[in-house]
Amino acid sequence: MFQDLAPRPLVFLMGALFTMAASAQQRPFTYEDLLLLDRMYGLDVDPNGDYAVFSVRATDMEQNKGVSSLWLKDLQQPDQPEVRLSVSDAGATDAHFSPDGGSIYFLSARGENGVTNLWRTDLAGAKAEQVTHLPLDVIAYQLAPDGAGVVVALAVFPDCRGDEITCTVKRQVSDRADPSSGTVYTRLFVRHWDTWADGTRNHLFYLPLEQVGAEPVALMDGFDGDVPSKPFGDAGDLSISPDGRTVFFSVRVAGDREPWSTNFDIYSVPVTGGPATLLTVENDAWDAAPRMSPDGRLLAYKAMARPGFEADRFAIMLRDGNGNVRPLAADWDRSVDEMKWAADGKSLLVTAADMGRERLFRIDIENGQVTQLSADGHIDAFVGTPRGLVFMKSALNSPSLLYMAKPKARMIDDGAVPLTRVDAVVKDRAFGKYEQFHFKGWNNEDVHGYVIKPANYVDGRKYPVAFLIHGGPQGSFGDSWSYRWNPETYAGAGYAVVMIDFHGSMGYGQAFTDAISTHWGDRPLEDLRKGWDHVLRNYPFLDGDRAAALGASYGGFMVNWIAGNWKEPWKCLVSHDGVFDTRSMGYTTEEMWFEEWENGADVFTDPAAYDRFDPALHAKDWSVPMLVIHSDLDFRIPVEQGIAVFTALQAKGIPSQFLHFPDENHWVLRPQNSMKWHRTVFDWLDRYIGTGAGK
């Protein structure tokens, strides 16, 4: 149930302590526990390293929503409980300290008009002061390092040149008054992820903070592109120079080729406005995350090399004041995720997927030497401070929690000081122990995976198996926590879990990732089959006669594919948002660059290329019972794909169910819908490989 909003010490429902010994008396961790977990995210630390602020999302099952609040941790007193800031009562998200550390800025829609604006409070967090008074929602923001101003992102009509904000408000009023519901489109995207295009673009504006009545300065006037990018961009798509005079941002010029393009470029623009300057004209692939060094000499950014490929390696580039560009750590075969400058400007701190984990690394600016800074788990956020590194980390058996690294530790997670408490309820939960394995897969190359024992495992017993297949396909089921596909919920229900990072997975080198493109149904399938044989030989507690395969997105495709090409081991299947008809996908999905890269051709000129691994062409051979799940707002893999799977199953008389959500996208996010999803999935597994835990 939703927890009260009165100020109190934060009590987290943590996954499990690594030292916790599971016993028969402990209640297993379940999906009900998962859905009620408090979720930490959004870390920031003040410049002196004295305080950390972060957000916590609690679940209100009665209202069927998540509720976020802001929490403050005194890093000078790690043994003292963190404090919930009472400004959270009216809604508060995306908190950041002011450059002087005296204030906390955040976004809230608490104003009279219900529009999301920028607010601030002091460290006591009792009173909120409105900073911006904009008529449009602030989508993202970044404070200038000098404290003089803030850059905000607003959705405006780009053809409203000269006065984008006022013009946009007037047009929205006019559009709402139009009795017709029809919309005329002249180019793609008509819809993206889960939203139909409305003609607006996310544009940046600069506002002086201490000038009362100052008008926002347009930084992208008339620009045909979005910052942050849609659908998943954030404030990391932009940055402000240390002197507060220049804004850098990454954006894709839309034009009429946006659904086919991954050509994001880096631009710079003065905070006083004016035309933006293109800095990466030489690269037609993805340039992202511009970050100026503390001394203002070098601009670091991430860059891909191959246009049209969204899963190419993100390398690091350094650009000096004369426009000279050089790669950094060019031989390091990892793709960079988060990237920040060290305070002394001599190195970059970056996270990257690495061998089934998300690790932190330091890269020396002069010689490109890469030093690993974390060992296991998944580094979710990090901030360098004068007192040491503060970070959030999760694992397969722990949600994201807050830590402080010891000053001289070689690895930040070696003896790190935990900064959040563990609730006694969860200390009583049993979690499945896990280990990583490897075997020879396609092309006789090493392939890695994880096996998880059931909670309260008893030596000598055999257990039914949930064989989880990750999506992406350039993704990973690694040592990290998930609130949608959480392996420990299967372990808590009495299942052993097997997850394999087949060819195409990230964190094993770019050639390994590349291997899946145009090979969706052969190389990964070979890895999955060999991995299944490997675990059956090496883990005798796995009951190969009671096994189910489950997957979403690409994993759903693979479930649909193995239903006709490798059905022998499985007593039942679960396909969530999976591709069924590859030709149809080539016409109906929104991001066309993905389909054309992965199939090696466009569907218009070479439809046969889409037939090579088309599950629909093998539906005649299906016989395994299958649960199909799909949602109306999934524009990435449209709902008709799931309906077609269920139609084929029903036509053949195969035991099957179709779970349909009219109000979800590619993911199931609403708490009650997530509860329905889990209950339906576990009931399905219980029926066919039965532990009795699904009832």
What would you say this structure looks like, in words?
This protein is globular. By secondary structure, the chain is an alpha+beta fold. Strand 7 (93-97) and strand 8 (104-108) form a beta hairpin. The protein folds into three domains: 1-97 and 379-430, no CATH class; 279-373, Uncharacterised protein PF15525, DUF4652 (Lipocalin), CATH 2.40.128; 432-689, Rossmann fold. The chain has twelve helices and 42 strands. The chain is 16% helix and 33% strand. The strands form eleven sheets. The protein has an eight-stranded mixed β-sheet with strand order 35-36-38-37-39-40-41-42, sandwiched between helices. It has a four-stranded antiparallel β-sheet with strand order 3-4-5-6, with no helix packed on it.
Tags for this model:
16% helix; 12 helices; Rossmann fold; 695 residues; alpha+beta; eight-stranded mixed β-sheet; four-stranded antiparallel β-sheet; Lipocalin; 3 domains; disordered N terminus
The radius of gyration is 25 Å
Give the N-to-C terminal Cα separation.
21 Å
Name the helicity range: 10-25%
Q: Which ranges are low-confidence, i.e. pLDDT below 50, for 5 or more consecutive residues?
A: 1-24
Biggest sheet layout: 8 strands, mixed
The rough form would be described as: globular
The CATH top-level class label of the largest domain: Alpha Beta
Number of domains: 3
Strand content: 25-35%
- How would you write the strand order of the largest sheet? 35-36-38-37-39-40-41-42
CATH homologous superfamily (4th level) name of the largest domain: Alpha/Beta hydrolase fold, catalytic domain
Q: How many individual β-strands?
A: 42
Known CATH architecture of the largest domain = 3-Layer(aba) Sandwich
* CATH topology label of the largest domain: Rossmann fold
Tell me the structural class. Answer: alpha+beta
